[in-house]
Amino acid sequence: xxxxxxxxEHQARKPEKRIPPEPRNGIDxxxxxxxxxxxxxxxxxxxxxxxxxxxxxxxxxxxxRIEAFHGAGGEHVHARDFEYDGDHPTVxxxxxxxxxxxxxxxxxxxxxxxxxxGNIAAARGVTLHEVQSxxxxxxxxxxxxxxxxxxxxxxxxxxxxxxISGDAPPEKLRAIVEQSKARSAVFDxxxxxxxxxxxxxxx
Length: 203
Hints:
Layout: H1 2-13, H2 29-41, E1 52-58, E2 61-66, E3 69-71, E4 74-76, E5 82-86, H3 101-123, E6 128-138, E7 157-166, H4 170-183, H5 185-191
Antiparallel strand pairs: 1-2, 2-5, 3-4, 6-7
Helix pairs in contact: 3-4
C-alpha cells in the first residue's frame, strides 16, 4: 500500500511537459526564448552599446548614420546602412527637409512599445490581428527659444492611444500593452533620468 501511495505522489510531482513555443506574429518565438535563456545563464551577454554619428548639413538640418553596435559578446553590423535627416519646420526657422528631433522621439517611443507588444503577445501565445496607435507630444517652445524659464525645453506631456485586437480577451490584450510599457527601453529613457554626458572638441 505504501509503495502505491509513493508512486502516486511521485506521479503528482512529475513536471508537466512544456510545449515548445511556435513562431507567432512574425516573431521567432523559439529564438526569443533561447535569447532570454542565454542572457539568464550569462548576464554579460546582455551588455549592449548602440552608436551613431551625426554631421551638420546646413541651417537646422543634419544627418545621422546608424553605426555598428556591440552586444551579445561581440560586434554586429546592420543588414544595411541607415541614415536619417533631422530638421526644423519653417515656422521654427528651419528648412523643413526632415522631421524634427522631437518627432523622431515620438517615433522611437511608439515603435519600441509596438515591438514589445509583438514580442510579449507571441511569448504569451496570443495571435495579434491588428495594432494601431496615435502618439501626441505637447510642448511649449518658449523654453527652447529662451523666452521662459518656467516651461520645459522638451515635451510637457506625451500620450499614446493604442487600438489592439487579437485572439485573447480585452483584459489580456491590455495587460500585454502594460507589460510592453514596463519593459520598454525608450519609455524608460524618457520617463527616467538617464545621465547624458556632452563632450566638446573645438577647433
